[in-house]
Structure formats: structure tokens, C-alpha cells
Amino acid sequence: MAKARANVTETEKLLARGTDLQVMCPLNEAGRCTLYNYRLMICRMHGVPAFFTLPSGVRKDFPGCPRCQLPVAAYEGVAPAIDRTTLYQELAQLEQEFRSLARQPPARVKLTLSQMIVIGPPKL
């Protein structure tokens, strides 16, 4: 909790200054994720080149992070990208099913992991 609070404070300072966000995840301990076996999908996908296609047909591309992947040179200049479209469609379907059982409208969450830890579990 203390690391999450410190992370939120540091992130707010950097955002106010317009500085690049280079804040370590609060779940990182000595360079390793303390939730590694149970980490969120966003954590598993971090740095991996990917894309997805919106229902409107618009494609969103994410080039990945050069620090988190094999050198692009190994792929003759173009690293392969994962198509996340089907995965996101399946996740959306699961969320819709869960929300219909909970009788709640879908929530739009725009929080960092640190912010979610500080705020606490969602109220269902």
C-alpha cells in the first residue's frame, strides 16, 4: 500500500511537470513482480508489439517497447505483432455476462494499478 501511494504521488508530480513517466510498478520488488504468476493481462502484454481492430474497422497499433523484447533486427526490421482483437472481444463478452449477473452497467476504469490499490476493491 505504501509503495502504491508513493507511486501515485510520484506519477502526479511527473504529470504536473510534463515529464516522461518512468515510475516502477508498486508490485515490483528487487526487479521482480510479486504477483508474477497471477499478473494482469496488461502486465503480461507490456512491451509486446500488438494491434487490435475496433468494431468500426479502425486498427490500433502498439509498437511495443524495445527494452522488453528481442531486437527488431532479428526480424529483419519488423517485429511480429500479436493481434489482440479476438482476446479483447472475448474479454468484453465475459465482462458483459458478469455485469448482467451483477445487474450493473459496464464501468470504464481509467486508473493505474497503483491508483486501484490505493482506492481499494470495487464495490459490486
Q: Give the amount of beta strand, in percent.
A: 5-15%
Largest sheet, order of strands side by side? 4-3-5
Give me the number of helical elements: 4
Work out the number of β strands: 5
What are the secondary-structure elements, in order, as H or E? HEEHEEEHH
Describe this structure in words.
The strands form two sheets. Strands 4-3-5 form a three-stranded mixed beta sheet. Helix content is 37%, strand content 11%. It is of the alpha+beta class and 124 residues long. The chain contains four helices and five strands.
Layout of secondary structure:
Layout: H1 2-17, E1 28-29, E2 32-33, H2 41-45, E3 50-53, E4 59-62, E5 82-83, H3 85-102, H4 113-119
Parallel strand pairs: 3-5
Antiparallel strand pairs: 1-2, 3-4
Helix pairs in contact: 1-4
Can you tag this structure with a few keywords?
alpha+beta, 124 residues, 37% helix
Short structural description:
The chain is α+β, with helices and mostly antiparallel strands and 124 residues long. The protein has helices at residues 2-17, 41-45, 85-102, 113-119, and strands at 28-29, 32-33, 50-53, 59-62, 82-83.
